[in-house]
Every structure is written in structure tokens, then in C-alpha cells.
């Protein structure tokens, strides 16, 4: 009997400054994340990536020259593999930088596999993230000509252990959390995508509602970060919210990146550096950011439970 393969899926990030432009090219070439007319998508992606790379490289320079997402995802895979044991084989497929889906499949098929589970490291489903990783998987998998059943885990935004992991992590990192206002910050999305039926916003709200059941009476709100380009994205924007809260007299703010499970430019640069500075300028005295879940034991337990229930 073969093993059950588990493919952990994430976005990936540049692992050097030289990788920033090709990483951005891969991202803007993806029709699932950005709808540029197909005929011109690749040349336009090339132009945008060339222009944007300069600014994006500045973020990564400040972060030590790379995104830590790959290391953190590999660590999650390692811990999950140990938790699941030998009947499973866990591999990592990143969408826009190494290890790509093709590399993940090579590694997976070094052994006999009789079932595949697709496990995104995006707790809330969006067709721009999870949907894109699934589509990339099927394109590559089809070419292998293997007749193996595939199970999609679309989201786990409401999984009790995922919620518990956030609750414990908030308490661990901000022991005086009761004095802080909770600002849940999630990656934004173009509003058009939500109007077309993407469940992302509803699922983010559900995650927050379930976390807040453990913190009755704690003042809190949700905002969205990291808008790209000129179209309308989900609001309120995190930076506007920080200014508004400061103006309302909030002095202690805890920012909780509820849609991310590893660190990258959006947390280490945008939340910590950019918005940290903004908060200070606006008079916030305690600006604290809860780390992403990474390999928090309860998060690994959550992933293990999700895999076992789908296996
Ligand atoms: C162009 C449109 C984009 C959409 C739609 C989008 C959705 C989306 N993204 C994440 C998570 C991450 N995005 C990251 C980087 C990043 N994202 C975009 C564009 C869109 N994202 C760009 C251009 C970039 C590169 C950085 C920049 O130039 O600003 C990252 C960080 C990667 C890393 O540093 O390792 C993450 C994580 C989600 C969850 C999401 C929709 C729900
Ligand atoms: Fe993004
Ligand atoms: Fe950003």
C-alpha cells in the first residue's frame, strides 16, 4: 500500500534580491490573481514586475534580503510530517517561487502515493490564492498521467484548533492584552472578486467572530492591508484604521494578522515597520503585532486533524 501525499501550498516569496523581479513576474503572469487580457498578460507582467521590483526590493532589503516564507513553510511541513507519521508524505508547493509545484510533485512521487490531499496555507479561501494553487496543481498533475484520487481542502477558517491557536498566541504574546484594542488585519482583495462570489471576506469575518468568542467585551475591528494598483479593494484599509483609532484616543493597539500563517513582507515590513511608524506618529503608545502562527503546536495540531479527517 502506498502513502497519502499531503501538498502544503503557499504563495512563496523571493529568496534573494535577484529573485524579486522574476517572483513578481510569476505573480503578475497568473490570470487567477490578476486578470490582464490573456494575450498581453505576459508582456504586461514583465513591465509591471520591472517597475515594481525597485520598490519591492526596498522592503526585502530591510528584511535581510529575502522573504522568510520558504523556511517557515518547510518547517511547518517538517513538523506536520512528524505529527502524521510514515503513512503520509508531506511536500511543499509554492506558487510564485521555489519550490514550485513541479518540484513538489517530483519529490512526492519518489515514493508510492495512492491519494493526494491539497492543503493550502491560506486558512480562508480565495480564488486568487487557494484557487490559483489548485489550478496550478491540476495543470502539472495532469501531465504526469497518474490515476490517483485528489482531495481539496478548501478552507479551515473556522477549525476549532486553528481558532484556539490564535487565542493562545494572542495571550502568549500580549499578556496585557486586556488593555489593548484588537485590530485584525487581513490581506485585501479587489472588491470585484468578492462581488463575483469569493467567500474570502465572509470567512475572514467568521474567523474573527470565533476568536472573539474567547475575548468577550474586548474592543476590536477588522481592516484590510496591502492593496495593489488602482481598482477598489476591500476596506477599511489598515493604515486608515490605525489613524482613525489613534484619533479616537486609542493608546494601545494589538494587530493580529488573521489571514497569514507565516511571516513575509506584508507582516515584517508593512505591519511592523510602516504601520508601526505611523502608529507612533499618531500617538499610539503601545503598538504590538501578534506573530503569525508559523509552527505553533496548536496550528500543527489543527493541520494534523484536518489531514486525518480528509484522509
Ligand atoms: C495583484 C493582485 C494581488 C492580489 C489579488 C493578492 C491577493 C492576496 N495576496 C495574499 C498574500 C500575500 N501577498 C504577498 C505579496 C504580494 N501580493 C501581490 C499582489 C496581490 N495579492 C504582490 C504584488 C505581492 C508582492 C509584494 C509587493 O510587491 O507588494 C505576500 C508576501 C510574499 C512574501 O513576501 O513572501 C503574501 C503572503 C493573500 C492572502 C491574498 C488574497 C486573499
Ligand atoms: Fe498578495
Ligand atoms: Fe504589500
UniProtKB/TrEMBL annotation:
It is found in: Cytoplasm. SUPFAM superfamilies: Chelatase. The keyword Transferase does not apply. One of its GO terms (molecular function) is metal ion binding. GO terms for cellular component: cytoplasm. Coiled coil: none annotated. Keywords: Cytoplasm, Heme biosynthesis, Iron, Lyase, Metal-binding, Porphyrin biosynthesis. Fe(2+) binds at residues 187, 266. It catalyses: Fe-coproporphyrin III + 2 H(+) = coproporphyrin III + Fe(2+); heme b + 2 H(+) = protoporphyrin IX + Fe(2+). Pathway: Porphyrin-containing compound metabolism; protoheme biosynthesis; protoheme from protoporphyrin-IX: step 1/1. Its EC number is 4.98.1.1. It comes from the Bacteria. GO terms for biological process: heme biosynthetic process. Its main location: cytoplasm. InterPro entries: Ferrochelatase, Ferrochelatase_AS, Ferrochelatase_C, Ferrochelatase_N. HAMAP family: Ferrochelatase (MF_00323). Belongs to the ferrochelatase family. Catalyzes the ferrous insertion into protoporphyrin IX. This is Ferrochelatase. It comes from Persephonella marina (strain DSM 14350 / EX-H1). The gene is hemH.
